[in-house]
């Protein structure tokens, strides 16, 4: 805070009155040149972000991800395993749930029904955290078929219904439920769109939703963006809301979908261009050693190269100069550009460890500033979509902090939104694994 002024509260997702809801009970049938022309780098702008607040700086501590890493862990919880209850310290039996979009839609419709009574939150906490992206999409289709509104009997979007019904409840629970109900890509578009609506210092939400993504992922996020003010164009939104500097150029570069591909048109790994690696290493070393400038060159390389290429660049840089480029880049770039470079490079070095660090950072930051709870929600929702990655993050968290991720989240949160966040950490057995063939016993 400056001058005794308090920060504005975080904006809520926009809510609109939803009336006349009913449940149908019937049967359901560029690059450096562009950057160099940008105004002064935002490195001079005061910005205390995620990586600046971590101590010690994480990137030099991470070990490269190799074969046989924690990615090989199968994220399966045994049927009938115990699930530690929230708050009361008692263990509750957690039975395995089979996803049934018809049943789930009916239960959630009943929980959200009405406007004069508070919504039932227990079904939201029980159902939503355990759904995959594909299952959320199935649920949304079924919910629209089941719940209608208005004289035209238009199907209701469950995410919007959750937003409208929970707007007067716990805002953190509403954000968590809403983000999951949006699905994997629309939720990323939501976080990318969220930061500018209120406190514009929270650009981690924007950085983490976009940086280090493949072109296909960026395309899916752009398709999931919805804001009539910008004609549903995330690119137009960023062009309008971000001020003219190199950070903006980096964001627009990502949205241009020109990142080097990891595979060719046939799905085969792209061969590493070692001449380009050599050139990049030389250019990056020059950039970090130059007294002025250099950020444009670092952005153009780090943002546009693939993870595989960057991993080789980091290796050759170390072999050539006996130095760690990630560490050198963070020394060179202390604020917004440093944040986006650190996020991409730490993901290249070891994504599970990076994300374990980010969760720990969010849990710690939220104790001092409740508005930082958005970081807990956005990060847990993001990681939970990929069950194998979430399993690797949990292993990395345990190895680094000596605690189970689920326990740490439970202890750092409270109330129903805490229950929801804790449930996001539970690895669930996929439906195809849980199917049991009928066996005839011969006596």
Automatic annotation (TrEMBL):
Top-level division of the source organism's lineage: Eukaryota
Annotated region Disordered: the residues are: 1-25
Recorded GO terms, molecular function? calcium ion binding; calcium-dependent phospholipid binding; phosphatidylserine binding
Which Gene Ontology CC terms are recorded?
A: cytoplasm; nucleus; plasma membrane; vesicle membrane
Q: What is this protein called?
A: Annexin
Provide the species name.
Coniochaeta ligniaria NRRL 30616
